[in-house]
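Hey, can you fold this one?
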Amino acid sequence: MDLKIIESETQFIIDDVIEKSGIKAGQVFVLGLSSSEVNGGVIGHNSSAEIGEVIVGVIYRTLKKQGIDLAVQACEHLNRALLVESSFAQKSQAEIVSVIPKLHAGGSGQVAAYHLFEHPVEIEHITAHAGLDIGDTAIGMHIKHVQIPIRPNIKTLGAAHVTALTTRPKLIGGERASYKA
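Sure. Predicted structure:
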């Protein structure tokens, strides 16, 4: 696996998803990542710390420059908990749980974020404004209602399928209601 290609394609994908989602400073972005899938394996069985470091590093730096908080989803062995900066957990009043991610219990994305973040903590729930799913990790549970699929210009990263989600406010009120254009 050529890590330079992964880095370049990750940058292209995250820039594309940020633009298409309309996410803004002060909002939260969730990342689901299977380095196993990127590496051509089966989710959870072929994890790569190096791939996780490259992908999370690009996404973290890009979001941080724009003032967007990153939450990295864990694998099912940690019940899809999310690694975030403690400052985000405090401002969102999220309950912190006690666990330190490992390559095969949390995943390569969480391990990379754990080392990149200034003060990483795990939380169980989040309501993100947008997100990126690399390797079909099922991030939908962490995205606000109403979810809108985003079709990135690059649909694979390595061998992994890439999808993304954004949101819009719910349309309520029925046929008599008016909505902003």
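The chain is about 30% helix and 20% strand. Let me know if you want another pass with a different chain boundary.
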